[in-house]
Amino acid sequence: MRSFLSLRDLVIKNWIFIIILLGLLIPLITSDQYILHILILSFILATLGASWDMLTGYGGLFSFGHQAFYAIGGYASAIICINYGISPWLGLLIGGLSALLASLVISYPVLRLRGPYIALVTLAFSLVIYEAITIFRDLTGGPSGLWGIPTFTPIDLGIIKITFEYTNRTSYYYLAYALLIINLIFLKIFVESKYGLRLRVIKESEEVAETLGIDTIKYKLVAVLISAFISGLTGAFYAHYIQLLSPEVAWVSTMLDIVLATMLGGFMTIYGAFAGSLVISFLKEYFRVIGQLRLVIYGLILILIIIATPSGLLKEMIVKILSFKKKVKVKNV
Amino acid sequence: MPKMSPQGLILTGILFGIINSFTAFFYSSEWGYLIAFTIAIMVITFRPKGLFGVRRE
Description:
Chain A is mainly alpha-helical. Chain A has helices spanning 2-13, 15-29, 33-58, 66-84, 88-112, 116-135, 137-140, 170-192, 194-204, 206-211, 216-242, 252-265, 272-286, 293-308, 313-332; strands at residues 155-156, 161-162. Chain A is built from 15 helices and two strands. A two-stranded antiparallel ribbon of chain A has the order 1-2. The two termini of chain A are 13 Å apart. The mean pLDDT of chain A is 86. Chain B is mainly α. The A-B interface holds A 108-109, 112-113, 117, 120-121, 124-125, 127-128, 131-132, 134-135 and B 28, 30-31, 33-34, 37-38, 40-41, 44-45, 48.
């Protein structure tokens, strides 16, 4: 009994490492390419959700234009890699940097405005990007999509040669997983640092923050830039993974997925988006048979979650489970 | 929230319709929404009370 208790304590204390380990083991357990594909897509969604959670949950900047950064990153990397023959590995960085530049443009109105106006401006910005992608079809391929995006070049490590092929997605899986974990840890550190704390003050009250001597513009700008960079990076990864881009990437439905995943997992948790996106991705595949009706189900789930548990379904569940366990422990002692 | 102005709403509705169809007529029908959304961003940025909104003192 004693050893069991300590094992449980170990699990509760180091749950994050156990989840990371579980994720690493999945390709060894299953070689089903379909499941790996869904998991890769859910990792992409989780990275986007975490970056959005940092900006919206902690910074209070209600962005509705994250799909624009995502699409800009993907298209920029794809176009440059196709036309100039640059390695897709460098393309990841190019995608992030181009999204960062785009966010510099949109941050001018975003930093001047507050509350719902930010949502309006970012939504309008994402629609401008969507329209621009369909219009400049010489560059982006227009509504028919951008074809022939090169995939990641193989890495030669001497002993092992890592290749990226459609028939075996294991290497893609590990790459997506590495991107997700690195971004999650980075965002968590950022949010827990003094930057994150000041962002939270700014979210609560900009006047108070300014009275305390916090440079609100600077901190908000840093948050926007980091969030956009991560979204662009993810978009570039998506482009080189799927090897086909269509303007649908920049459509509002991408944003809805991000919001739903983050809401499901819990606001202001960073990790919540990971849990939420796993649920969303598998639900999406499960409900694929009913076609457009699944959007109705999406909406209903979102409404129910917001009404029932404003701090996120999974967060509240986890808190309940943990507190229940603690109560039992107290009784035993 | 800013005060609503029905007159402004009617005016901008007509304005957007004209801009949309003029860009379609003189240039290309695809550019209509792009220009409309760009104007919307500009207006929200530089005149948050709207084109015909009154600045409250």
